[in-house]
């Protein structure tokens, strides 16, 4: 085992958080801003990259390259480590940033690698490598939006990813094909053959209410799909908010206006 062996417990249903139990000198690495709470005796440190043994071995340039790759996925240059420096077991908790589920994944059960959506990673045991996975056909990737640049989690420890709405886990048989909206794809095992394809028929793309691209997944392998991507939720909320001639939200009689007034707005 190259990764720290951590224990965990999930709390909640639609707004979950994960509580991780750290033995002395055990470390968990997480996205900046995902911390919910932690007990005394745990120290925080901001680092370049993911703190895995592979990035440490490559020196400063390796760390800078890893941080630069994370910028391509829209994530922060930095990650945060949480280490138990006390004498007993300590607990640290991380929360999902929007309604949905947290999925624990033991990478040793998935051949040491999981490919996930670029904003899905939440936290992992120290030693798990967080990198990027490029779609092979760059032309489709640049126009495929969310389906192009994905993250890859490598190692033999625990990792936690989050997704919106309800999570559906599907095992694909050899040669079985599943077509998924690029935003709804959460994660997949490394043996799944995937591609980003344009929706056939311009009328379908323009008037059908769907995106121009979808992910075509071919088995064997395991796929995780989310029912409510955050981008879809945000676009619906924005579209439903009344607009003023100047482009702002009108407010009167709207949910957003009520919240604004409740918080002391004028």
Automatic annotation (TrEMBL):
Source domain of life: Bacteria
Classification via NCBIfam families: TIGR00266 family protein (TIGR00266)
Full protein name: Uncharacterized protein (TIGR00266 family)
Species per Swiss-Prot/TrEMBL record: Psychrobacillus insolitus
